[in-house]
Amino acid sequence: MGFDSITCNKLVWCTLIIALWTCTLEGSGHLMSSEGLLPPPKTLLEDPLITHQRTLVGGGPSNQYQRSLASLDRPVMGNFENSSLKIMEDVKAGLRYLFQTENKWTLALSGGGSLAMDIILDNLVEPGDVVLIPTFGLWGVRAADIVERYGGIPKKIEAALGSAFSLKEIEDGIVTYKPAVVYITNGESSTGVHQSLQGVGELCRKHYCLLVVDLVATIGVIPFHMDSWKVDAVFSNTQKALGSPTGMAPISYGTRSIEKITSRKTKPKSYFADLKNNWIRNNYWGISDPGAAQTFHSSYPILQIYALREALASIATEGLAHGWARHFDATAKLYTAIDNMTTIEGGSGVTYFVSRAEHRLTGTVALLPPKGLDPKELMNLIRQMYSIEINIGIGPMTGKIIRIGVLGPNARPDIVDEIVSAIKYGLKNLKK
Amino acid sequence: MGFDSITCNKLVWCTLIIALWTCTLEGSGHLMSSEGLLPPPKTLLEDPLITHQRTLVGGGPSNQYQRSLASLDRPVMGNFENSSLKIMEDVKAGLRYLFQTENKWTLALSGGGSLAMDIILDNLVEPGDVVLIPTFGLWGVRAADIVERYGGIPKKIEAALGSAFSLKEIEDGIVTYKPAVVYITNGESSTGVHQSLQGVGELCRKHYCLLVVDLVATIGVIPFHMDSWKVDAVFSNTQKALGSPTGMAPISYGTRSIEKITSRKTKPKSYFADLKNNWIRNNYWGISDPGAAQTFHSSYPILQIYALREALASIATEGLAHGWARHFDATAKLYTAIDNMTTIEGGSGVTYFVSRAEHRLTGTVALLPPKGLDPKELMNLIRQMYSIEINIGIGPMTGKIIRIGVLGPNARPDIVDEIVSAIKYGLKNLKK
Fold first, then answer.
1. A387 with A54: CB under 8 angstroms?
2. Does residue A22 carry a pLDDT above 70?
3. Are A218 and A335 in the same domain?
4. A313/A341 same-domain check
5. N- to C-terminal Cα distance for chain B?
6. Is the per-residue pLDDT at A184 higher than 60?
7. Residue percentage of chain B with pLDDT more than 70
8. Is A7 part of any domain?
9. How far is B279 from A200, CA to CA, in rounded Å?
10. Could you tell me if A363 and A219 lie in one domain?
11. For chain B, what is the mean pLDDT?
12. Is a pLDDT exceeding 50 seen at residue B268?
């Protein structure tokens, strides 16, 4: 039998195999016709994608740094190639600078800040662990709910909405409840309140508990020094002062956190979250133990990683201290304008929600509207006339406050002028 | 006291308040200086963002539909404005078409397919629930791990890597284990195997269990009809045949799933996942009960939602049936080329990993390399010479196979020609 005839036989055989695949596949025959299909939605066939240029000053999302925005038209690369991994290394370095830490376990999760809250607590809380949660708004309430789901015992100490805790109050809580973990929201975005971290790290070391801090509203806005302040785990999001799109959550675990995680007796509840058993063998972020068997965890959102890399490069190029000062100055300018509005304009009636100045957050400001004014009407009018987006509160404050954020690229004097002008316009035109 | 003097007093008072905020803020004084800061990373200060145009045919991520890619330079809008909500409505409509369902509870989660697996099982599995998992690769193993974490009892039936289950085998499993949920991976991406769904929905109704299907590797590739096939819950990702960036997870729950979820006696473990208590009050997606108190769940990744909307519009415009046929044709062309390579080229030695033709997945093809050839070397050479990205397997197959995917915009004859040409080049040049 010659070569030709073998080839011919094989070709016949191959054709038969393909015919078999064709026949058995659900993709074949009548199933491939559009008969009997639910029709495609008219709205997708006919409507264009309509978007608007906004100045986003509602306290999150903010606008993006120019470099971050520009990175999004870059092509998607493969998960495993060196050019992708190099960008992830850059992100890790940038996040270490941002958090002021040398923690190896510093990376960005796909998913956003709310998911990161779940993930960090799932890893750090074992059933029976007491978690002390100073609660002064939405985020402490949620943290307690999360801790309970993972079998932990949340112990809340509570402050009135619009205020925060003294170091003494936190220490009293620690002494009373002897927690394994203290969970602190550095900036309570629902009320515009700043919780000072001064001395809390030392306190936690003294009492042998871990300190976890939610930096969502404060990272890049006010000074933070993870290592020298002795913070054991932190997370943030990307769409506020980082000036990158929503959808990722930077996270960092210190040595004491990793010790607790690797000596856990129970598995975290979420496979996705599980650092000890899963992330630690994930090679993408280059944080796995060299000897560990590599495994596939999940595909990472490479475009968002480009964007985060470029946002972090913008922050590194400006320098953290300069960025903090810029946020401080923009907020001070906004405060002055609000004060002037209240006084010189003959009393617009806008007042601070946070009465004690030392509790006020930099970057995110919560205001009470004049009597009779619906913040939602103000928000809609300002959006329509100025294309400026403010926020009217979340959680317990929904619809009750005017929330203004000068964050990331928007922490600038000209943006503050724009905001003030828009609010004056709104108050004047909505006056009853 | 005249008006001027009141104003003056107020101004003095305001200045004092700002001074107080300034003094107490951690942002003030020496803390704002860059002294003592860990330095910014050189790599972010000096290196540009380097990316490469790739033809991504490793079976995920794939390249994006042009409209999806183009949407990413659109400006970010606010979370609450009507223009944003309209885009989310479009996404819901597009996903309903994609899944062929009228389910109200159809939306896209921030986070990706691996997270969606966690979330869907967290919602549908209560402690003590038996979950039947036909397991024939990485994803069934992971599903079992997840079910166990949530207190469920995973019951695996197992098939050799490279094969799938008959309806009879699935029915036997159901009869033996009496599961509350049957969890099926429609396309096992680690091995390139297709698990037929024919008859499984009816079976699950007959035996009073829910049918959950992982559509990650198959949605948009082969026919799927959620409603008429009686599937109770599904999820997918966005970076394969949907042709949108990695980072979101479309999900749909049918009536029977929602009944189970709303009558749960225990809370899901993850706050983020919890549909009954949290998502159901989230107004963004317009799926909450009209009377329910609204709450803030999380910020959604609006840019990714633009991209998904545009990808779904591309799919709707082409029509599902046409898209399925296109994937079928591209895969058939690839099969023919592989067969020809094996025979006419005098035996390259590339063989199918999945020996039975009827088990082979459309869109994602797993090949065994010729003896002595390291798939990693082939992947690297092809990337370098052709800028084509193939994959070398994940999970149990890592480094053992050559995985090729013609998915989404890449399911085209010219792309198949490119791939075949690159593989021929690679095999020739790496021949020992």
1. yes
2. no
3. no
4. no
5. 99
6. yes
7. 88
8. no
9. 34
10. no
11. 90
12. yes
Q: In CATH, what number is assigned to the domain containing residue A341?
A: 3.90.1150.10
Assigned domain for A17 exists: no
Query: Which one has a higher pLDDT value, A293 or B418?
Result: B418
Who among A298, A313, A357 is closest to B44 (CB)? A313
Provide the chain B residues 399-418 that lie in CB contact (below 8 A) with chain A.
none
**Domain end among B284, B318, B352:** B318
Cβ atoms of residues B66 and A9 within 8 Å: no
**Do residues B216 and B330 both lie within one domain?**
no
**Which residues, numbered 190 to 249 in chain B, qualify as contacts with chain A under a Cβ-Cβ cut-off of 8 Å?**
194, 196-198, 221-223, 225, 227-228, 237, 239, 245-247
Claim to verify: residue B341 and residue B311 sit in the same structural domain: no
Quote the number of domains for chain A. 2
Would you state the pLDDT for residue B107? 93
Establish if A47 touches chain B: CB-CB under 8 angstroms.
yes
Peptide bond into B250 cis (omega under 30): no
Q: Is A8 on the interface with B (CB under 8 A)?
A: no
The answer to whether residues B239 and B95 belong to one domain is yes
Beta carbons of B27 and A332 less than 8 Å apart: no
- Nearest by CB to residue B389, choosing from A31, A81, A297, is A81
- Could you give the CA distance from residue A429 to residue B42 in angstroms, rounded to a whole number? 51
Q: Are residues A247 and A128 both part of a single domain?
A: yes
Comparing A286-300, A327-341, A368-382, the range with the smallest average pLDDT is: A286-300
**How sure is the predictor about B9, in pLDDT bands with cuts at 50, 70 and 90?**
low
- What residues in A contact B150, CB-CB < 8 Å? 269
Range of the domain at A278: 66-318
Q: Closest by alpha carbon to A394, among A240, A189, A209?
A: A189
Residue B344 has pLDDT above 50, yes or no: no
**ipTM of this complex:** 0.92
Give the residue among B40, B44, B47 at the shortest CA–CA distance from A313.
B44
- With CA atoms as reference, report the closest residue to B156 among B174, B135, B142: B135
Q: Does B254 map to a domain? A: yes
Cα B386 to the chain's mean position, in Å?
27
Q: What's the CATH number where B237 sits? A: 3.40.640.10
CA distance B210 to B131: 9
Query: A311 and A374, same structural domain?
Result: no
Any chain B CB within 8 A of the CB of A384? Answer: no
Closest to B87 measured CA to CA, from B247, B312, B421, B365: B312
Residue A385 pLDDT exceeds 90: yes
Binning pLDDT at 50, 70 and 90, where does residue A35 land? confident
Report CB contact under 8 Å: B223, A111. Answer: no
- Res A46 pLDDT > 70: yes
Q: Which of A318, A344, A366 is the last residue of a domain?
A: A318
Q: Residues 287..326 of B with a Cβ closer than 8 Å to A: which? A: 294-304, 306, 309-310, 312-313, 316-317, 319-322, 324-325
B403 marked as binding residue = yes
- Residue B8 in any domain: the answer is no
